[in-house]
Amino acid sequence: MNDTVNDEKPLKVGLLGCGVVGTEVVRILTEQADHLAARVGAPLEIAGIAVRRPGRARDIAVDPDLITTDAQALVSRGDLDLVIEVIGGLEPARSLILTALEHGASVVTANKALLAEDGPTLFAAAEKYQRDLYFEAAVAGAIPILRPLRESLAGDDVTRVMGIVNGTTNFILDKMDSTGAGFDEALEEAQALGYAEADPTADIEGFDAAAKAALLASLAFHTRVSIADVHREGITEVTATDIASAREMGCVVKSLAICELDEATDSVSARVYPAMIPVTHPLASVRDAYNAVFVESKAAGRLMFYGRGAGGAPTASAVLGDLVSAARNRLKGVPGVGESSYTQRAVRPMGDAMTRYHVSLDVADKAGVLAAVAHAFSEHDVSIQTVRQEGRGSDAQLVVVTHTATDAALSATVESLRDMDIVREVSSVMRVEGE
């Protein structure tokens, strides 16, 4: 260690939360203290840890003198240089972060839900008090995606971001594809392995991915996108039949977060839903509980970021990366790159998004059915790419794959099909992406 680092006054760090991620943060700060000090230019000293249950057993020994149940008092001390928030949720996290910024600390957070819900308030506070607010860990665990969007691609124009940003849903869909398991069976396995919570709603209904999509869109397109702007659909309706149909098309089913820039209208869109993608697409090979984000830009072309998207150690890695950056800025006396929302582009409604549909219909097996179905598509200006018919006694199944059209036109077509006497049931509707 050089003498400059040794002589530098330690930077005091406050930690809000000491669960799975917080414990890993403490471990890394403790075990790699010398290396981190060399990278920062000064030692990082844990000055306090706020927890709800001080007596809880943890995987690492924590100095009991650092533990407090009064998080508000910790962030109000005024002597903290840096605060790490890993408690999650909206409150008290929002109030604690605002108080930390007001009292002079830069903040590192993994709180995607809060940032997607009320990011502007937090960013405004960071700007007002000239402090950093970093959140790399909020989107894809250890995968460095926010900093490349914010800094490495700052001189480029990003046009599309499409990713698998929830490991739980990817694990479930991967198991359904690779083993033939049904949704409930795959979910139970995910819970047994610790990939899914006892209440998996946030994951399987797309809330987690929608919050991440809002953050990705905000950074990629330099405009404010909240979770309320993100169209969201979960994976609970995906069936083994859908998985098999995708396989017949040379596709797999993935839950995707898609953020796009429409240059014609200078507007953006953000959406989350299960979709079929070709097996040749880079995202199709993302297996198990891994995450990946596919970025398209004008100059750099296509880029993909891949890795573990959840878990204590991967998330802590992203937190510590932000902490080092914020600590360096602190020593220099300047904040880093703040929120980039200068464009203020409008957010397009889901109905205007361009996509393709895969539609399975149970119909009466008689003459004229195919023509009637084709007419329903043409009435809404939706072009059919392929159609396959299989007879089953007095019934038949039609599988229609469309060309690209607006989601509103495709949705209206499906509703028309449901009203037709010859259509017994619209058994499956799934979007097709990645081509």
From TrEMBL:
Enzyme class, spelled out? oxidoreductase
Fetch the CDD domains from UniProt: ACT_HSDH-Hom (cd04881)
Pfam families tied to this protein: ACT (PF01842), Homoserine_dh (PF00742), NAD_binding_3 (PF03447)
EC nos: 1.1.1.3
Matching Gene3D superfamilies: 3.30.70.260, Dihydrodipicolinate Reductase, domain 2, NAD(P)-binding Rossmann-like Domain
Q: Which UniProt keywords apply?
A: Amino-acid biosynthesis, Methionine biosynthesis, NADP, Oxidoreductase, Sodium, Threonine biosynthesis
In which pathway is this protein known to take part?
Amino-acid biosynthesis; L-methionine biosynthesis via de novo pathway; L-homoserine from L-aspartate: step 3/3; Amino-acid biosynthesis; L-threonine biosynthesis; L-threonine from L-aspartate: step 3/5
Name all ACT domain ranges.
Answer: 358-431
Top-level lineage group: Bacteria
**Reaction catalyzed:** L-homoserine + NAD(+) = L-aspartate 4-semialdehyde + NADH + H(+); L-homoserine + NADP(+) = L-aspartate 4-semialdehyde + NADPH + H(+)
UniProt-listed InterPro entries? ACT-like_dom_sf, ACT_dom, Asp/hSer_DH_NAD-bd, HDH, HDH_cat, HDH_CS, NAD(P)-bd_dom_sf
Q: Which cofactor does it need?
A: a metal cation
Function as written in the Swiss-Prot or TrEMBL entry: Catalyzes the conversion of L-aspartate-beta-semialdehyde (L-Asa) to L-homoserine (L-Hse), the third step in the biosynthesis of threonine and methionine from aspartate.
- Family the entry assigns: Belongs to the homoserine dehydrogenase family.
PANTHER family xref list: HOMOSERINE DEHYDROGENASE
Q: What is this protein called?
A: Homoserine dehydrogenase
Q: Which organism is it from?
A: Kribbella pratensis
